[in-house]
């Protein structure tokens, strides 16, 4: 009888220990979502498609005047961008992308990988196929996705008040219809026009300098007194003289 009682007690203790181990093992694990799941902690020196996906999400945190390369290589610039992202959302800013960082990204993105406050429909009021521009439909859509994540970072920096998008991707026909320039970045999917609303046009032009946009055009630049334009052109060109830029 005594032996049976001891065996029962041992069994209960072992079950409790197993449950505790299970709890410790899963604590802090990032909750995967239907867009993209990271299966490892990422840090400097690592590379791969999962690093590139992370870079897209933190592309809006490169620091003043900088642009984060989406190259799948976790170098110092990526670590710095991750630190800024972490700090912006009150996480431990160590530059290592682990469960807490991924959990925040999962919370910020929708099932189609767009950030919570922007959508593909918002960035493409021209057609439903993303075709007819200066690059393939897939490239135009990818460029727009990166723009949205940069805008999400900018929105958060501006107090999470809405940012109004008035124009995004355009096919050549759509661009011609609105009188766009022949080499407009809208044809590439990365050009975005922003209208006044929660923020003035100048406030948005000024803030955009911190979020990875090489092209910033706003009030004071010909044809841009009624909107602020941002894009990913190959070299920096900022001009919004009425805003001190």
Care to describe what's here?
With 245 residues, this protein is α+β, with helices and mostly antiparallel strands. The chain contains eight helices and five strands, in the order ααααααβαβαβββ. The chain has helices at 2-26, 49-57, 76-88, 99-108, 120-123, 137-157, 172-177, 201-208, and strands at residues 164-167, 192-195, 215-217, 228-231, 237-239. Strands 1-2-4-3-5 form a five-stranded mixed sheet, with helices on one face. The radius of gyration is 23 Å and the shape is globular. The protein starts with a helix and ends in a 6-residue tail after the last strand. Mean pLDDT is 90; it is low at 1-29.
Short overview:
With 245 residues, the chain is of the alpha+beta class. The chain has helices spanning 2-26, 49-57, 76-88, 99-108, 120-123, 137-157, 172-177, 201-208, and strands at 164-167, 192-195, 215-217, 228-231, 237-239.
Rg from alpha-carbon coordinates = 23 Å
Low-confidence stretches: 1-29
Cα distance spanning the termini:
86 Å
Query: What's the helix-strand series?
Result: HHHHHHEHEHEEE
Which band does the percent of strand residues land in? 5-15%
Which overall shape is indicated by the principal axes computed on the Cα atoms?
globular
Strand order in space, largest sheet: 1-2-4-3-5
**Helix/strand class:** alpha+beta
Helix content: 25-40%
Number of helices: 8
Number of strands: 5
Sheet with most strands: 5 strands, mixed
Instruction: Give the averaged pLDDT, no decimals.
Output: 90
């Amino acid at each position: 009888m005594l032996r049976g009682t001891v065996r029962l007690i041992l069994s209960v203790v072992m079950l409790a220990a197993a449950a505790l181990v299970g709890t410790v093992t899963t604590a802090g694990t990032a909750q995967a979502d239907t867009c993209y799941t990271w299966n490892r902690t990422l840090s400097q020196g690592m590379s791969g498609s999962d690093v590139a996906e992370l870079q897209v999400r933190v592309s809006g945190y490169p620091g003043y005047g900088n642009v984060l390369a989406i190259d799948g290589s976790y170098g110092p610039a990526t670590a710095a961008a991750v630190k800024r992202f972490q700090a912006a959302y009150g996480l431990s800013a160590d530059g290592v992308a682990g469960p807490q960082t991924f959990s925040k990204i999962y919370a910020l993105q929708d099932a189609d990988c767009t950030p919570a406050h922007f959508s593909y429909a918002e960035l493409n009021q021209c057609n439903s196929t993303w075709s007819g521009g200066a690059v393939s439909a897939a490239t135009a859509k990818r460029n727009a996705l990166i723009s949205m994540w940069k805008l999400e970072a900018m929105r958060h920096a501006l107090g999470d008040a809405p940012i109004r998008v008035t124009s995004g991707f355009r096919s050549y026909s759509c661009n011609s219809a609105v009188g766009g320039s022949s080499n407009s970045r809208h044809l590439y999917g990365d050009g975005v026009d922003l209208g006044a609303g929660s923020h003035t046009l100048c406030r948005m032009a000024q803030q955009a300098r911190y979020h990875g946009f090489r092209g910033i055009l706003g009030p004071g630049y010909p044809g841009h007194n009624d909107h602020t334009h941002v894009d990913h052109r190959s070299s920096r060109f900022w001009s919004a003289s009425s805003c001190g830029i």
